[in-house]
Automatic annotation (TrEMBL):
Stated name of the protein: Uncharacterized protein
Organism expressing this protein natively: Siminovitchia terrae
Annotated keywords: Membrane, Transmembrane, Transmembrane helix
Domain of life where this protein originates: Bacteria
Transmembrane segments: 15-39, 45-69, 81-107, 135-156, 163-183, 203-222
Lineage of producing organism: Bacteria, Bacillati, Bacillota, Bacilli, Bacillales
Keyword Membrane: yes
Length: 227
């Protein structure tokens, strides 16, 4: 079976790729819209409800391996073909979600917050660039989260629960040491100034090496992963 066959497997999972993210995003939007109608709207009302779709993209990268990898291997699909097809599906989903985020952000800004000064998709700084820059930023961010989840699931598939436990402990240890060193050498102010000097799309470009590393490591892990 070729890559098209892998894409067909994923397209049949309408709940994972279509229904669930639609329900999450629409329900979060409606709840926050109702809240905005119940409060004083003399000022713009911003909500972080849209973050739910970004979190789901990370989760999707994890569950897609758990749900489809054993089935695909059982259908005599090679690991290489499965990986390429799944990675392609993740990129397609990232593009579609990125385009939708840009369109909704544009409509929200055009309608002055849906006529109620309510901002769910459009935020200062994040949406300050051109439509193309925003699209690129969202695609990169969604792809980064998907492949990060994909890498986590591939690692778990390769090394199991004990491996994940050791990975978490190593991550916590490294994070703690990093925080201590940054505080010790008073580097926080320099880091914050650097972030403030960058635009949102410029910051997203720094995620590209992480995406590439996640893709390569995921492929290497799945090559030796058990079913």
């Amino acid at each position: 079976m070729n890559i098209q066959g892998v894409l067909n497997i994923h397209r049949k999972d309408r709940w994972g790729w279509l229904f669930t993210p639609t329900i999450i995003l629409s329900s979060s939007f409606l709840v926050n819209l109702i809240v905005s109608l119940l409060i004083n709207n003399d000022k713009k009302f911003y909500t972080g409800g849209v973050s739910s779709i970004f979190i789901y993209m990370l989760v999707l990268g994890i569950i897609v391996v758990t749900q489809s990898f054993p089935f695909a291997i059982g259908m005599s699909i090679t690991r290489k073909v499965y990986f390429c097809g799944t990675a392609l599906m993740g990129l397609i989903a990232s593009f579609i979600l990125g385009a939708l985020m840009c369109i909704f952000s544009f409509l929200e800004n055009l309608s002055n917050g849906w006529g109620n000064r309510f901002h769910f998709f459009h935020f200062p700084y994040l949406n300050d660039g051109t439509f193309y820059e925003q699209l690129v930023m969202y695609i990169i961010l969604f792809a980064y989260l998907f492949f990060l989840g994909f890498l986590i699931a591939s690692f778990a598939r390769r090394f199991g629960g004990k491996g994940m436990l050791l990975l978490v402990l190593a991550f916590l240890l490294i994070s703690s040491i990093s925080v201590i060193l940054l505080h010790q050498y008073q580097a926080w102010s320099h880091i914050f100034r650097w972030f403030l000097s960058q635009t949102a799309v410029e910051l997203s470009y720094w995620l590209l090496p992480s995406i590439l590393i996640s893709i390569v490591l995921s492929f290497l892990l799945l090559r030796r992963a058990s079913i």
